[in-house]
Amino acid sequence: MTSDAEPIVVLGGGLAGLTAAFDLHRAGRDVEVHEASDRFGGKIASSPVGDRLVDAGADAFLARVPQGKALCEQLGLTDQLTSPVAPVPAYLHRAGKLRPLPEATMLGVPTDLDALAASGTVSTEAVARAGLDLTLPATSTEGDISVGAYFRQRLGDEITERLLDPMIGGINASDIDRLSLQSASPQLAAAAGRHRSIIEGVRELRASLGAALGSGNSAPVFHGLTGGTASIIDALVDHLPTDRLHLTSPSLLPGTGPTVVATPAPAAAELLATVAPRTSALLAQIEYASVAQVTVELPTSAVDPVLDASGILFPRVDGMIITACTWFSTKWQHYARPDSVLLRMTSGRFGDRRALELDDETLTATLLGELQTVIDIADQPFAVRVHRWFDALPQYVPGHAQRVADIFTTLAEEAPHITLAGAAYRGIGIPATIQSGHDAAEVVLANG
Predict the structure, then answer these.
(1) Domain C-terminal end among 180, 213, 246
(2) Percent of the chain with pLDDT over 90
(3) Does 274 share its domain with 372?
(4) CA atoms in the 13 A half-sphere facing the CB of 201
(5) Over the stretch 413-422, which tens digit does the pLDDT of each residue have?
(6) Both 390 and 405 in a single domain?
(7) Is the pTM of this model over 0.70?
């Protein structure tokens, strides 16, 4: 099919849809993007807080996963790439105190029990319980066990709830007892499959990652952009023909021409209800969590202590509405100012809608009040931004990978001219979402 053939239609102007359109345009194909809202970007956005634009969605992506950095290089954003500068990765909340996230952990899994005990992050009893992992019989991961079920068996309840939950559960806005180990953390799932002991498996994983990076390597773990991650969206839009980009455009299947559906799963289910009813039914089974964020700028003199870390994680077991607090002005050099601190408080998880039921003023006061259990705040914010992300994060329940395989197989049978892209399928992070766009474009090009 040549460039003057029937246009390829991309429904959904988020990161996945725009990446697919970018690849197709670079391949010489005529492509149209239709976005139902009044802006491109989906769950990636920036908006004002005071006198500057601040990320309202993801503010970073993993550096060791190549898709994010590679796309930035293709888009001419290399000079904007940056990495966190905070001397401490994060703190954990425990009983009204801040405890450092233990260094000898990976996604909350300890690799050095002595260091974990010395950190004071969990009790001595919890450390002793985790040590049983080294001698317990293997825990089967067949049938796609949940994160909670697996790690409660291996490491006990306290470490699962105070280390694994705020890390893996927080990233996914999920209940770890209904979160797929295989889909939410494939690296840990692979380590669990290779070793009887997950501690030994993660030790090997850390060593292999270190070997791949090289001894003495100081490569960053995360990348961000000085213009915010929304710079990726702006650049993708700039690289596509203006007359092929449509906002506030109803999401309607164009017919039998090649189409990429890059909308959230519920919207995709509605779109496909007539042309691919079995696929639609499978898509409708994917659930979503909603989150709310309050970003504030406060006078430095009114905050004690000014955090020396990228942020604070609040375990679900503490019962607080706040789940995390990102200290933008410590984490990123481009947000640092001597007279103010900039921080973002996040709330909301699957099954916990308390934050969504509060108005903006009450939500702001509630989150600031919970933060004040560990940070003394003696003045009102200079600026406040409340951002609510409804149905933002797909929930990867046990069996998710098989459901996704069934979705793509069934869609190929029912409507082979349509392919899917987005965070609902094989990863929620920026690199995974970019890869889903690449994959969709590749399928379209392979089909001619």
Answers:
(1) 213
(2) 89
(3) no
(4) 20
(5) 999 999 999 9
(6) no
(7) yes
